[in-house]
């Protein structure tokens, strides 16, 4: 039913790589944003 050959992988693999890259970038971006928000909150409390 699901026949995977070399030619179908040529178009499928880049799509999966792009989706995976977007998930990784989103994960690290959210982690970075949480850290920056925590820093800003700490700085606001000190002033």
Automatic annotation (TrEMBL):
Keywords: Membrane, Transmembrane, Transmembrane helix. The keyword Transmembrane helix applies. The chain crosses the membrane at residues 12-30. This is DUF3149 domain-containing protein.
